[in-house]
Amino acid sequence: MTRHSIPPLAVDTLDYLPIVGEWDPDTPYGQWAASVRVPPTFRPVGTPRVVVVANNKGGVGKTTTTVELATAWAAMGLRVRMIDADPQGAAVTAWIGALYPDGLPTEQRYNLRHVFLGTEPGAAGGLTREVSLDEATWPTALENLDLVPCGPDLSRVEYERTGGTDDALRYAIAESEQHYDVTVIDASRTMSLVTLACLIAADDAVVPVKPGVLDAMGVASLDEILARIRRRQNPKLRVAAVLATMWSKSNLARDVQEQAAEDYPEAIVSPIRNTTQVGEAPHSGKPTRLYAPRATAVADYDQVARLILGTPGAA
Ligand SMILES: Nc1ncnc2c1ncn2[C@@H]1O[C@H](COP(=O)(O)OP(=O)(O)O)[C@@H](O)[C@H]1O
Ligand SMILES: [Mg+2]
Fold this sequence. Notes:
Blueprint (H helix, E strand, L loop, with lengths): L18 E2 L15 E2 L11 E5 L8 H14 L4 E6 L5 H6 L15 H6 L20 E2 L5 E4 L8 H4 L4 H10 L7 E6 L5 H9 L2 E6 L3 H20 L5 E10 L3 H13 L4 E6 L2 H9 L3 H4 L4 H14 L6
Parallel strand pairs: 1-2, 3-7, 3-8, 4-6, 4-7, 8-9, 9-10
Antiparallel strand pairs: 5-6
Helix pairs in contact: 1-11, 5-6, 7-8
Adenosine-5'-diphosphate binds next to helix 1, strand 9 and helix 9.
C-alpha cells in the first residue's frame, strides 16, 4: 500500500493574508481588504487536540474545511485522524476514501457507526461486540492522514442506540491506543445525537460561515447550542476560529466577518477566499492542497491551520 507524502507549499507561491489584531470599522470600502483577525488574547494550544468543524447550516464549507485543515496539519508532519460524522453524503469518505486491506470482508470495514453501535449480530446469531475507534480508523492515500469513515447508515445511531451516546465519542477518543496529534471531525448540520457527541468530544470548534445575512443568524443559533454544551457537558469547548468561506470582497463578507469578530471576541476570524479549484478537488479524489497547491484558498487554510496550533510560520 503506497501512501503519498504531502509536500510543503512552494514558498514563492504563498499568498498569505495580513494578520491584524482588530479590524478598523471605519476603513472605507475601497481600502478594505482581506485580512485575518487574531485577537491579542488568542492562545494557540498544543497537541493532542480534537477539533470539530461545525455549523448548523449546510453548504457553508464544513467538509472542505475538515479536509483542508487536516491536510495542512498532516503536511506539517502531525499525525491526523479525520472523523466523518456527517451521514448525509458522507462527503469526507467519498472525497478522500479509506484504504482497506486487500480482501477484507465488507462487514469488517468498521466505520463510525460501529463505534457507536458495535458489530452486527451476524447471520449466525452471533453477539454484538464493541468496536474501538482504532478499529474503525483506516489509512488514506496520504501520509499522516487517517480516516474514520461513515456511510448514510450512521443515522441508525439516532434510533438504535439506547443510551450513553453523549459521551461515546469522547470516551472512544480517550481510549484510543494510537497517538494522533490532531483529530478533525466533520460534523453534520443536524443537531443529532452524533453531532452532540462530536461537540462533547471536542476541544475546539471551527465554524465556517458563508457570507450572507442568514448566515449571521445561523451563527447566533449555533452559539446558543455551544453555550449549552459548555454549561452542561464540555466546559472546555471553545470556538477557535470562524472562517468566512467562499469569500470575495463585498459588504456582505465584511458584515459577516465583523459580526463573527463581535460574537466570538476570542476567536481567529479569517476569510477563505473563493477559489474555483476548491469545487473541483473532490472530483479528483485529492485535497485542494494537492490538486491545486497554488490556489488562494489553500494558502488561507494553511495559515489558519498554523495559527490555530501556533505552528511557526503563521504570520
Ligand atoms: N473557498 C471556497 N471557494 C469556492 N468554493 C468553495 C469554497 N469552500 C467551499 N466551496 C464549495 O462550496 C460547496 C459546499 O462546501 P462543503 O464543504 O461541501 O460544505 P458543507 O460541508 O458545509 O455542506 C462545495 O461545492 C465546495 O466545493
Ligand atoms: Mg459536508
